[in-house]
Amino acid sequence: MTGRTDGHPAPDVVIVGAGTAGLPAAIEAAEHGLRVTVVEQADQVGGTLWRSWAQLSAGGTELQRRKGILDSPRLHFEDAMRISKQTADPELVRLAVEHAPATVDWLMNARFDIHPDAPAILHFHEPYSIPRTYWGRNAGRSVLEVLLPRFERACADGAIDLRLHTTMTALRKDGAQRIAGVTLRTPDGTTTDLDAAAVILTTGGYSGNAELFPALTRGAPLVGPGSPTSTGRGILAATDVGAQVRGQDLFLPTYGGVLLADSTHETEGLDDYPSLTPQQRPPWEIHVNRHGTRFVAEDSHSVDVRETALLEQPRLEFWIIYDEAIRRAAPPLLPTWSDLDLEAAFDRHPSFARAGDVGALAAAAGIDANGLRATVAAYNDAVESGGDEFGRRHFPAPIGTPPFYAVRNHGTTLKSPAGLAVDHSLRVLGSDGAFANLYAAGEAIGGSSMSGKSFVSGMSVTPALSFGRMLGRKLAGEPHDPGSM
Length: 485
Ligand SMILES: Cc1cc2nc3c(=O)[nH]c(=O)nc-3n(C[C@H](O)[C@H](O)[C@H](O)COP(=O)(O)OP(=O)(O)OC[C@H]3O[C@@H](n4cnc5c(N)ncnc54)[C@H](O)[C@@H]3O)c2cc1C
What we know:
By secondary structure, the protein is of the alpha+beta class.
């Protein structure tokens, strides 16, 4: 046990960040007898769960068994590594898939408001081969509905000392590979030190920090719906004491997403993205880069093919191009947008353009006009012949009836790829090995640890919950094998 600081007895564990990983870590640690301090920079707990879809994945759950779906952690592991193109961390993925069924069962036993269609194979990310994605009817909020009552109970019982509006600004070292505690900026702006026997960093990623994102991701621009609380501060504090970061080279954008009218990096919420999943809505439009050139079969069923092609395009931008006839005949491209919303967007929103001919459309959208004219003509030939150079198969209509439309999209980020290197006990790694008492879980260990250069469905939220629980129990001296959780 360490000494006293800031007028309170030192806690057994300081958990920095009260989001997807931090909440279950705090619940388990407190319910197993530890004195826990939770430090959260925002004015509420929950982190990214307030905006995440929070789709979970697990192979070998009770629900799958009840529905007659044959699955196991081994099959989940093989699928996850296939989708990550073998670029995820195999040992951490193995740990995650072994704990995943217990995590989903745990949520279910706590009356998780699961969507009746789950588990299913979903197609927004490269799909699994077995139905093993689960989601709540109220997305991330359904997960919070399970976590918050237990967290609040532990706070009310005095087992958790919750400090909102409090930012960890630094970790303090005590010897080469030991942490003495944390430095905090309190709500009144003063700085204070807090000692702790152990520190868990559950500070999330950096997908809300447009300055830090390129610095940690080999220059890639940040565009996405990330939470502003995903500041990357925890990762930076750990690197200041010698922690290692990895995954900087494993960025793959999500295919599509429209900026908010007044932002250079924040997009509309994920539910308001254009419908670009061909399995749900075969495309009637074409997608072009700023040269006016197509770069992929828009109807490719492989998310990986489309995302990898987008990675090569200037500024990770593309425009969805269509005409009035398509607007009238096709299922809605932006299903959650009303006609009034769209009219207003085409009048004022900088990502939306409308014009009477293809050249004027290109000029309005910021695309090369000659390139776009040639591309539209070539596409219209392909509609006639039924084939093109990309292998597209769905050619419902040519693009030729004015007015013409362009909607600018981006390669977007739902989870930041780089993060703290950890060992298989989730201890943070420095250049001289693991820190004895500094742990990390959730997106702080890098989205690429579980997904590699891809997005493996459910493999951000599920491991965040599992590893948070694992660490809470482990520090309390409880067994943390999957079966006991
Ligand atoms: C729109 C969207 C949809 C997504 N959908 C899915 C999905 O369906 N499935 C999936 O697996 N993943 C999904 N993800 C990713 C997933 O939600 C996140 O990776 C995960 O929730 C992160 O959990 P976390 O605990 O690591 O961080 P968070 O939940 O972000 O929590 C981190 C907390 O730490 C706090 N904090 C940070 N730094 C400090 C500091 N220095 N001091 C004090 N507090 C600090 C923050 O304020 C925050 O509350 C999605 C992400 C987004 C943005």
